[in-house]
């Protein structure tokens, strides 16, 4: 099967998986938000942050290397990658077990220790299946993997609801991770037919570390950037404030977190196959930017416009404190969604160090911004986060344009036009006094008509299936 057909099929399967996952997550969170409080969500978030921070030192970049490497001895590399990944995973678990009681004491909540232990079980099995998953992605063969993940993902989320109903409180958010993830991992491992041998090539291990050192360094610093907000809110404000922030953050990312992976999950293997064909690389990267922009931007801006009725209807009136934080955080989510393919571009062209150097520079203004903004409470904190993270995403787009030797306007033409159409629609709706339901319908119609007019020369190619993303005439090098 050609790369184009594989990518088209993978896109459909990922749309199915993410669509179902997003819909199910919406209903599950709607129930959990009503029976749990902000502190419960804050405890789980801060517990997961510890594991995320530890594991990034060890296992980052190994799966990416498996996808990236295409030489004749790739089977030996895959085998070495598995054992290296397993050894590092065990190391992470040891550090996590030792750190858990001290971490719980630092944040003043004993439940954190138990939650960390439960999450570590899921982490081990999740890492065990990371190489088989990388092989599925390398082959752009998603059918089997997607249906297995959908089944166990559904089981996990339903389990959270059942456990919360039975009175397990905060532990209902973590127990499914310790029970369902192992079943998912074993199933994926078996289905992938990957059978590691006992051979371990130290030369390959050195090459893996040489490739991943920038990815690891980038993600270590990136982990501070991505989780530094959680650490500061929990300590400077409170675990309850962290819970409110988490709900607002989750809702701001509700659509993007389920749609963008449809693009980003296959962006690395697709771009990697084009890394010796510059015209193909530029075209495919540009189409990724266009697709995420035309779909994400109107939805994000619409959610900002109708934030209050959405949150109160879905999560309940006790979460009205999350409305303004959600609206503020959605601004950076918009910019991040546009620039999301950039990290895959760096890895695809064999230059992950670009991301490292950027994050190394970025971390200083990031922490200065969120530290001083935290003095103004949760709202001030969200404003600081939105500003500094939006600037980071814009910078990634500029770097990508220079890496491809194209103007920044060439890269962001469609995003700028889409934002303009969306904001004009908001301007019209804000001056119309109608029921919310009518306003939503009117907003959708106006923005759709505007985009048809303004983007008429771009619209048809953009809304084509992802198959068109990889269809180019000069495909001899792919």
Tell me what the structure shows:
The chain is mainly alpha-helical and about 475 residues long. The protein has 2 domains: about 200 residues, no CATH class; about 240 residues, no CATH class. It contains 20 helices and no strands. The longest helix is centred in the middle third of the chain and has 36 residues. It starts with a helix and ends in a 15-residue tail after the last helix. About 45% of the residues are buried.
Summarize the helix and strand pattern as letters. Answer: HHHHHHHHHHHHHHHHHHHH
Strand content: under 5%
Q: Helix- and strand-based class?
A: mainly alpha
**Domain tally:** 2
What's the N-to-C terminus distance?
A: 13 Å
Q: Would you tell me the overall average pLDDT?
A: 81
The major pleated sheet works out as: none
- Residue stretches low in confidence (pLDDT < 50, at least 5 long) are 462-478
Radius of gyration over C-alpha positions, nearest whole angstrom: 22 Å
Q: Helix share of residues?
A: over 70%
Count up the helices.
Answer: 20
Topology, number of strands: 0
Principal-axes shape call: globular
SSE topology sketch:
Layout: H1 3-35, H2 38-55, H3 62-68, H4 74-107, H5 111-128, H6 130-138, H7 143-165, H8 175-192, H9 202-237, H10 239-252, H11 256-272, H12 278-305, H13 307-315, H14 323-339, H15 342-348, H16 353-373, H17 377-403, H18 408-429, H19 436-454, H20 459-463
Helix pairs in contact: 1-7, 1-11, 2-4, 2-5, 2-9, 2-10, 3-4, 3-6, 4-5, 4-9, 5-8, 7-8, 9-10, 9-16, 10-14, 11-12, 11-15, 12-14, 12-18, 13-14, 14-17, 15-17, 16-17, 17-18, 18-19
